[in-house]
Amino acid sequence: MISIIFWPLLTCMVMAVIHSYFGHFVIRRGLLFMDLALAQWAAIGYLVSHWLGIQYPLSQFLVSFGFALGAASILAVLTRLYDGQHLQEATIGILYIAGSALAVTFIASTGMEGHHLQEMLSGQLLFINALDFAQLISLYGIVSVWAWRCYPMFQANQSLGSNLLFYGLFAIVVTSSVKLIGILLVFSFLVLPVMTVFREKAAFGKQLFWASFVGVLGSFLGVLTSIWLDLPPSFTVILVLVLIWVLSLIVLKEKGLKNELN
Prior knowledge:
The protein is mainly α. The chain is about 85% helix and about 0% strand. It contains 10 helices and no strands.
């Protein structure tokens, strides 16, 4: 069993850490569904590359990244345009809906099989191998260097240039993640770990550490549970992360009641 879950589990743990970094900014800016929108358009890129008969993983990635980067550029412009009216989230929702409708229509009109839709949502977690992980960690290493160096700029302002760089780096992460683990788990890694610790850990460093810990713990328990109960791994990890978040809310509520009594 260890040989089956080793690379999928290690991949989830690494993804949990880097998505926690971007999740901090997404939640802070109130753009919760940005990840879903970019992941949806990255998935369309993979569908198009498959339809075109592109076999090389790098070529598939570049096609998918082109779609994700296009969506990221649109978001960078429109979220800034609608910032004064607090309509950024509505803009992101429209982009996600358009991407979802386009993906389903594309699958139906080209005669592609239904499993492509399922893979778009859940990925191929248990089929991740050493080569996939090596490529992923190399790419994430480069992104992490840029993300860490640009942290002060991302924290201080939301100029068009800053947004384009942030969304561009984020698009790279999403594009590399969505094929392996699917749209839904990508979104879960972005939001759920940070939401679990957001109210208790205000400082960025502590928040990143504990959100990463929650993501790694949820990945470990989720993958083991999926193997034990023969359940889809991506969905099981999501449910475990949701459970951890719910437990954190219960703990916070109990803590609040004790403070009121004291």
